[in-house]
Amino acid sequence: MKAASVINLKELSSCHKCGHKDHNIICSVSSDVLSLLDAAKIKSTYKPHQTIFYQGNDPLGLYTVSEGLVKLESVSESGQAHTVRYVGAGHAIGYQSLFTNEKYNVSATTVENSIVCFIPKNVVMDIFNKFPMASFQIMKALSEDLKLADSKWTDQMDKDVPQRVAEAILYLQDHFAHQNWTRKEIAEWAGTTPESVIRTLAQFEKSGFIDQTEGRNIKILNRSGLMNK
Amino acid sequence: MKAASVINLKELSSCHKCGHKDHNIICSVSSDVLSLLDAAKIKSTYKPHQTIFYQGNDPLGLYTVSEGLVKLESVSESGQAHTVRYVGAGHAIGYQSLFTNEKYNVSATTVENSIVCFIPKNVVMDIFNKFPMASFQIMKALSEDLKLADSKWTDQMDKDVPQRVAEAILYLQDHFAHQNWTRKEIAEWAGTTPESVIRTLAQFEKSGFIDQTEGRNIKILNRSGLMNK
DNA sequence: CGTGTTATTGAAGTGTATCAAATTGCGTGG
DNA sequence: CCACGCAATTTGATACACTTCAATAACACG
């Protein structure tokens, strides 16, 4: 009876039952992968604002976000925190440092309640060797991250704070609509200060682009207005 | 006689004779790869400031820099040019867009006389399928690029112009010493204007960190002084 | 030797960070 | 469910680093 329930639990948390098995970057490669993962993965639950790994840690494997939302952030010597990327359910984190033999250059913390699976490095490498498609998936993810990073940097240079804040709220709402983003979080994503975000949002509201009467929630009224400045 | 000389030329330009065959990201995977590449590659020579591919073009394959120096730059709507990366001999370009089915988000132009090999997409994919090591190499390169891009963005935010210019001249000299960088090139790398670069360099000279009496060449006198501001 | 590019210097304007203080809102525990 | 306390938000004033524009000087190149 006891053994049966244990088996049952294992069944329930099996990768074969996971809602993301057909979409996740590595799980979707082949059903044969799932069995390998099942034997090796470690599933953990996190509350909001808990840290999965720290900037400077040695990478031990790959993480996939099963539920929730994870923020990758870099903290500079001056203590300034910058949000590098947000990673939602079905996507992976920590793959960047797997291949460079360097320490993580970002920290990963949860934004909301999250479930994260850990896959040890040797298992990941084994999968790459057996399934070339897995490599393509990772290369695609890395390429997309790189594109985002490059464009974020060039945008930074050309665009002023209002433009960056406009893009930030559009991006954050489009990708993670359910979140009620704080002004600080928007600032760390847009590369500015909370005060500047607030002043900018007030300006947007005056222009009729947004509405922020209900709590901290931002309702977008005029997308093209925002995009054009 | 005629045929012999053709064969000879082919021999000379063979990947098996290339000085980078043991170091290049893809050529070094296996000697078997070299034969595949030899049959497919297209070798081109470029003068300074010629363009290899343009931002917005469709990616057709992979390029490796055999000799010279290539700049990846992104030009924004406002016409501002930003240098995303410099790529020296032995390294590859254009791999980022191979996996995303998107157009190039940067342009690649030569800085000096350069020789560049082009490898068609289907050949690259074939190599990835046959040699898993090739994928690891690309993943490593993508990871390193991503790390550089991420850190460049966060640095941008925290550091002021003097710090960025200091890092720029150190980086550019360390990696591509033979180049006599123009103030504009330094500015596009550091994310500022030529005027600000000039004023900053004058300040550095006054502080005894550098010497710029001989032409446009910058001689670094005090590395740690530069790094600490 | 001229012509276009790069470098330099100056003056002026401004966007944005910073600091400080007041207010609101929210979560937590009583 | 209310009250408390802390965090998030808001507003204002100030300062300044940096860009921008303009004009000149030095240089490289054909």
| Quaternary structure annotation | homodimer
Largest contact between chains: A-B, 41 and 41 residues
Question: What is the total domain count of chain A?
Answer: 2
Query: Going by CATH, what is the homologous superfamily of the largest domain in chain A?
Result: Jelly Rolls
What does the main sheet of chain A amount to? 4 strands, antiparallel
Based on the coordinates given, report the CATH architecture of the largest domain in chain A: Sandwich
Residue share in helix of chain A: 40-55%
The chain-level structural class of chain A is alpha+beta
Radius of gyration of chain A: 20 Å
User: In total, how many beta strands of chain A?
Assistant: 10
Text of the CATH class of the largest domain in chain A: Mainly Beta
Distance between the termini of chain A: 64 Å
* Spatial strand order of the main sheet of chain A: 1-8-3-6
| CATH fold field value of the largest domain in chain A | Jelly Rolls
- Give me the strand/helix succession of chain A: HHEEEEEEEEHHHHHEEH
Beta content of chain A comes to 15-25%
| Total number of helices of chain A | 8
Query: What is the typical, i.e. mean, pLDDT of chain A?
Result: 88
The backbone outline of chain A, from C-alpha atoms, is: elongated
Low-confidence stretches of chain A: 1-9
